[in-house]
Every structure is written in C-alpha cells, then in structure tokens.
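Reagents: none. Just compute today. Glyoxalase.
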Amino acid sequence: MTRSESRVQVQGLHHVTIVGSTRQSAIDFWEGALGMPFVFEQPNLGNPAENHLYFDPGDGRLLTVFTDEGRTDAGRDAPREPGTVEHLAFTVSRATFQLAPARLRARGIEVLERDRGFMDSIYFRDPNGMKVELACYKFQTPEGWRDADVLRRAFELRVARGDANITAEHLADAIEDLLRR
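Predicted 3D structure written out:
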C-alpha cells in the first residue's frame, strides 16, 4: 500500500449525536424510558442556542442530544432517505429484551418485534420519530472472541452452504470452529 492509498483506521464508535426537541423530552425518553443515565450537559459549542445533553447507553460511550426549548416533538416518522440514519440499535440482555415490549407499551410507545435469525429485535420510535432498536443476540460469544468474529464465521458458513440468512445452525457451527482455533 502506498502512502496515497493508506487509510484512517477507526477503533470503535465514539458517540452518536441526534437532534432532539426539548431537554425534558430527551431526558424522559433516553433516561426515563430506556434507562440511559444522564451524564452531563453543556451548551452546544457549535450553536450556543442549543443545549447538548450526554447519556450513557451502557458501554461507557455516549449518546448525545442537541435540544432547544423552542422546539416541540416532531410527532412524525423521521425521514428515510440517502444521507440519513435509518435507526439506532442498542444491545440489551435476554431478560430485558423479554420485558421491554410491555414496559415500552406501558409508556404509550408502540413496538414491533422481529426475529432476525442471528438476533431478536424490537423497534419503536423516539419522540421525534427516529427509529430505535433493542437487539439481543441469540448466541453467547466465547471468551477471547468478539461478537463480530462469531458473525463473520457464521456468514462464511452461510455463504458456503448457499443459505439465505444466518440461522442457529450457522451460529453454533461458527462458535465450534472458533473454539477449535
């Protein structure tokens, strides 16, 4: 690889920032409904008319929300077009996953549950119409490996077998392969 072909190597997701409506709406949803502890706030240094709220989604990284007391909740689905985020997905335990639909519905939040083959998903919308997902893998990653390692190997097995999507069999065989290494 020549110098002109070198690339920047990212090492993980640092944070995600979304545009919200009011401070209280953001706190009620991200901390109240989803249990993400409120960490701190300060003015949006790029736009002092907005406030910048920081929440911990559980892994020590941050989800941040720009708020403005002059805005109201959008009350519509967020746009889905090139250049926009389709949804944000958060990892939850199997126990939380099983309880989440009832807890969200109790707050008046509509949910859609889906089996994705290698994981289960619950979809719903934040107060501004952005789609949010709670995801729970159907496998336990072996010590010393990462979720992506299991999924990469399961994908290779799926393709080699000509299957349409990753199934429990691909996951089990992928884990077995990784443990033999």
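The chain has a mean pLDDT of 95.
Action item: order primers for follow-up constructs.
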